[in-house]
Amino acid sequence: MVRQNYPIKNELNAKRIKWGNPQNYISWAYMKELRENNRTRKIYEMNPYVEVYQFRDNLYGLFTQNCDGAGDVWMYLIVGPEKALLIDTAFGLGDLKGLAEKLSGGKEVIVFNTHGHVDHAYGNCRFDRVYCHEFEVPSLEEQNGHMFDYLFDENGDNIWLQFDKEDLPKFKKYEIVGVPDGYVFCLGGDYEVEVCWLGGHVSGNAGILDRKNRIFFPGDDLCSDISGVGGGPKPGVKNGQYMNVQTFRDNLAKVVARLDEIDYVFPSHFIVNVESGVLESELEACDEILKDPDCYDYKAFSISPKGGAPTERYFKYIKGFSVLAYTMEGVYPPKEEGERGTEPK
């Protein structure tokens, strides 16, 4: 019997049918308190699928339910003097573009994907242009008119989340712009946000550093539930040689070296506004895995909402926060793309 978390009272249009996996107790308790009691929470008539939270004077968290059975999602909007940056687009339920434009006060909205996974990038077709790290371009190019099919059963009924199908975006091609590590978006005046390539979770997972607010957005490379950073290369996935703990660790170390520029971290799922020291704890967990991949605290099998064979994953505690997940093929970079990762000699 799969246990159920206590329901979170909310007024969103979508209603949960079922989860793919039980939700983390601590993350769920945090989200229940935030969603039921935060005084800044608003739902705008133009998009009843998104709860908007004002975390800073110019920073909004856009919370939306995951259309499949995985964890619910945060998008973020940073409003600068002249332009705004929208971090991720989730599944694009409702008028996401209109909501972002309203919150920005009519300023131009730049869209950036931390990575191309379904729950972060399927709303891209609401927009004409989307930026991402250059290694993630192939993932976005694979989107097509059938990408939402897995959300429904053979009768066309919703599987995980009940919502009006007409509120999903209609697929269209859009311009994809890949940018390198260190790329800077200027939001007006001296307001700059920087792309920080991380890899790990996927080849092109990239964080955003909001220099003014001293906030780092790591995408899915840090999460209060499971930080999956070492899945290893997958057949047919380009740039898969960067989906490992070693690559992520080396890039994370560069971010940790700049902690004097970062006060808080806002992951893309569950607990947010975390003190930046958590990044040091995650780096320590990576180092322990690289020293001895068998030092895991526990192991378990996981199944993707899209199906397929179960994956055996290993879990190492990130002190004071969550766990880091990896496979044995995803510890070290492969000798060549597609080969099993091997420890450097």
Account of the 3D structure:
It comes from Hungatella hathewayi. GO terms for molecular function: hydrolase activity. Keywords: Hydrolase. InterPro entries: Metallo-B-lactamas, NDM-1-like, RibonucZ/Hydroxyglut_hydro. This is MBL fold metallo-hydrolase. This protein is an alpha+beta fold and 345 residues long. It has a domain at 15-224 and 246-275: Ribonuclease Z/Hydroxyacylglutathione hydrolase-like (Metallo-beta-lactamase, Chain A, 4-Layer Sandwich), CATH 3.60.15.10. 16% of the residues lie in helices and 27% in strands. It has helices at residues 25-37, 96-103, 118-121, 137-141, 245-256, 278-291, and strands spanning 15-16, 42-44, 47-56, 59-64, 73-79, 83-87, 108-112, 129-133, 161-162, 175-179, 184-186, 192-197, 206-210, 215-217, 226-230, 264-265, 274-275, 298-302, 311-318, 322-326. The strands form five sheets. A six-stranded mixed sheet has the order 2-3-4-5-6-7, with helices on one face. It has a six-stranded mixed sheet with strand order 11-12-13-14-16-17, with no helix packed on it. It has a four-stranded mixed sheet with strand order 15-20-19-18. A hairpin with a 5-residue loop joins strand 11 and strand 12. Helix 5 (245-256) runs antiparallel to helix 6. The longest helix has 14 residues, at 278-291. The mean pLDDT is 95.
Pick out its properties:
Metallo-beta-lactamase, Chain A, globular, 6 helices, NDM-1-like, hydrolase activity, single chain, RibonucZ/Hydroxyglut_hydro, 345 residues, Metallo-B-lactamas, alpha+beta, hydrolase
